[in-house]
Amino acid sequence: MIRIGLLGLGTVGTGVVEILEKRQEELKFLTGEEIKIKKILVKDINKKRKIQLEENIITYDYDEILNHEDISIVVELTGDLEQGYRYIKAALESGKNIVTANKAVVSKYLEELSSLAAKKDLAFLYEASVGGGIPILKSLKEELALNKITEVEGILNGTCNYILTEMFNEELDYEEVLEVAQEMGYAEADSTADVKGYDTLRKLRILGTLAFQGEINENDILLEGISEIIPFDIEQIKKKESTIKLIGEVKELEDGFTALVQPTIIKEDSYFANVNNAFNSVVFRGDNVGELNFYGLGAGMLPTANAVLGDVIDIIKGSYRKGNPLGKRKLKNLNTKLKNEYYLRISSPNDSIYKSIENISKELLSKKDNIAIITKEIEYLEIVELLSSLGIDNNNYFIARILK
Amino acid sequence: MIRIGLLGLGTVGTGVVEILEKRQEELKFLTGEEIKIKKILVKDINKKRKIQLEENIITYDYDEILNHEDISIVVELTGDLEQGYRYIKAALESGKNIVTANKAVVSKYLEELSSLAAKKDLAFLYEASVGGGIPILKSLKEELALNKITEVEGILNGTCNYILTEMFNEELDYEEVLEVAQEMGYAEADSTADVKGYDTLRKLRILGTLAFQGEINENDILLEGISEIIPFDIEQIKKKESTIKLIGEVKELEDGFTALVQPTIIKEDSYFANVNNAFNSVVFRGDNVGELNFYGLGAGMLPTANAVLGDVIDIIKGSYRKGNPLGKRKLKNLNTKLKNEYYLRISSPNDSIYKSIENISKELLSKKDNIAIITKEIEYLEIVELLSSLGIDNNNYFIARILK
User: Fold this and answer.
1) Could you tell me the residue range of the domain that residue A184 belongs to?
2) B392 CB-near residues (< 8 Å, 6+ apart)
3) Which SUPFAM superfamilies does this entry report, sorted A to Z (chains A, B) (predicted)?
4) What CATH number does residue A70 fall under?
């Protein structure tokens, strides 16, 4: 029998319990083992749960899991950055394998935890942290030894993609859509990490570091979120027969890399334009395989729980690539080489502001109510610095990269 | 050191040698082993090769590989059905692991070879046989224990997709495009298996049997190829704001399954409409993951060789799911339940023929030069039988399913 310690019983944790229940027979046939959740760590031991649980399975004392000799796999689903990190580290140090969906922890502590797990000859798997139910990290890891990967890009956050899709298709306000998304369970009560782009950034940091076999940090990535977008922006984008998506992208150049997470305006007939609602998609390019695309549900109870359990089975069957998957290449950040045309909208404009930005403008889209321009080919930071020097608060503008 | 016996040194075999060469370091780092091709079985020992090979590596005697104790993995790339089968069976019986790209063998002997490999505790891996460089079979196998898969569909043949894309975009004749495809190496000199749909059918038989965990045979699949398509057909399809793809599809119903490979007319804005040229795509649906799409190059030297070597590494690292992946469900063929509207074109028509098919017609598209109709919702075999009873040769008609 395989015994699991589960940390957290929120949406994903509940999904894990549910799938283990309904696919019991198939899992036993495949693994030759019964898989049992032995202990579940929760914050509130008296909270009412949607699912029936055995007596004494719930605990608020992590030591009960750490010290339980029969528990060989800890599944960390707390969603909490520093606590999640401490739990994972302690589990590895106690000789237990780790499966986690916690992208914040994986992003911040990827090198340390990968190295610790490898040293201890244990698994540290985090498929669910990127792309939800899409088996992207495993596929990527398995291509690494065979391919030189030169590019990874993706729509990596279901909440942002849902908001942008609805704003575009239903012509709704940002706040209205966000509210509906929260009611439907697509967006969390505190959606800051999603809409400000941090969630996409973390996933890109993980993908990039694996793909390029060298450390790409959160700080290496240019970041612009979608929280300031307004229906006026959507109108301008539609006029250009384009749509807008929050895209994360790392590219290897001859002597380094570029990395960004930015709202990106793309033609309506391009591939990413058809990735809608809560769907995610990741594209990578390798020298042998060429372009490989993966598409599926990037979030949600069952897709995410499915990814978590895929890792669990890989541990039980030994069917994962052992050892530290991270390479030691030293890569130079070449983001200053990134030049693009950008869409820039500034609210409550006055004439002096328009004059101040005129010399980065290639095309004036509007001067009424909002100033909207398409910039010349320019660095993103140049725009941000210019706006800052003009005293324009970041609540009052929206920037999006334009892909031709 | 890991020693490989390679059977066949055509396009894919050459790609295998090339990747092993250029990714030597990375592969050694990952596997901790040197991977060496010890022997290569060829038909013509004196043929000039594009690649430099060590002396004495080439042989025309399979026993040299079978009896070589140090060879632990046989990579079968002959492309020949019955000979390939004999080679694979003999290798497994001699205790050697198998990697093959030979979809004809895998399709015909899937149950026998899976069972033999499992009995011998050896690997029988065939990722390259479906979807070329796209890691679809492994992903599918790994979802099986967790998901109930209810549908698999795909564009599975690069040659057909290239032909249909070019006929549609460049308004060329079938023969012209085929010739170009052959010159460019997309299509083989004998393209029968591709354009008559056999290749797609074999891949679908493999996908369906894995997905549904019960035997779906070549004979279970309704088959119509693309070899009779003419520019006139493309014109009619364009008028309906649609395009055409050769699609393979298996669906599970409540008490059985349906399976078909048919030219399929789809709306221009649908997902498969954007899978063009030599690209393949496979979509499957599971109860946990929802819809998962994979997209990439379905053929070609390096993508296919990459898939072959992915299997080789999995064997070396032990990172594949061991045991027989096939289930024992008994599934009922429900193809007679499949009703669709079809596009039907008959060349060199006469008035009596039109009268004979009038009562299956929902819409008459043309009576000039060719009769073209859209049928009512009808069974595919009903059309074929009607045409046969009218004495219309299968060189003189083209049928395509219409998806709404």
Assistant:
1) 136-296
2) B346, B353
3) Glyceraldehyde-3-phosphate dehydrogenase-like, C-terminal domain, NAD(P)-binding Rossmann-fold domains
4) 3.40.50.720
Q: Which residues of B touch A135 (CB under 8 A)?
A: 139, 142-143, 292
Mean per-residue pLDDT of chain A: 95
* Residue partners of B18: CB distance under 8 A and separation at least 6: B51, B301, B302, B305
Contact A288 B302 (CB under 8 A): yes
Q: Give the Cβ contact number of residue A167 at 10 Å.
A: 22
Of B308, B300, B326, B328, nearest in space to B97 by CA: B308
Q: Are A67 and A10 contained in the same domain?
A: yes
Considering only CA atoms, which of B307, B322, B320 is closest in space to residue B132?
B307
Nearest residue on chain A to B286, alpha-carbon basis: A303
pLDDT digits (tens, 9 = 90+) for B10-58: 999 999 999 999 999 999 999 999 999 999 999 887 888 878 888 889 9
- Nearest CB to B146: which of A138, A139, A309? A309
Catalytic residue among B39, B96, B196, B203: B203
Residue A333 belongs to a domain: no
- Hey, CA dihedral for A204, A207, A213, A217, is it positive or negative? positive
pLDDT in tens, A45-81: 788 887 888 888 999 999 999 999 999 999 999 999 9
CB contact under 8 A, B321 and A320: no
Whether A380 and A398 share a structural domain: yes
List, for residues B338-364, the tens digit of each pLDDT value.
999 999 999 977 778 889 999 999 999
* Number of domains chain B contains: 2
Residue among B290, B302, B310 minimizing CB distance to A133: B290
**Residues written for chain A:** 404
CATH of the domain at A395: 3.30.70.980
Contact A321 B320 (CB under 8 A): no
Share the mean pLDDT of chain B.
95
Q: Give the pair of three-digit tokens for residue B347.
A: 């060349």
Does A375 score more than 90 pLDDT?
Answer: yes
For residue A299, the chain B residues in CB contact (below 8 A) are none
For chain A, percent of residues with pLDDT exceeding 90: 87
- State the smallest CA–CA distance between residue B302 and chain A in angstroms: 5
pLDDT at A182: 85
Cβ-defined contact of B313 to A145 (cutoff 8 Å): yes
- To the nearest whole angstrom, how far is the Cα of A322 from the nearest Cα of chain B? 8
User: Which chain A residue is nearest to residue B279, measuring alpha carbons?
Assistant: A291
A304 marked as part of a ligand binding site = no
Average pLDDT, stretch A15-27?
Answer: 96
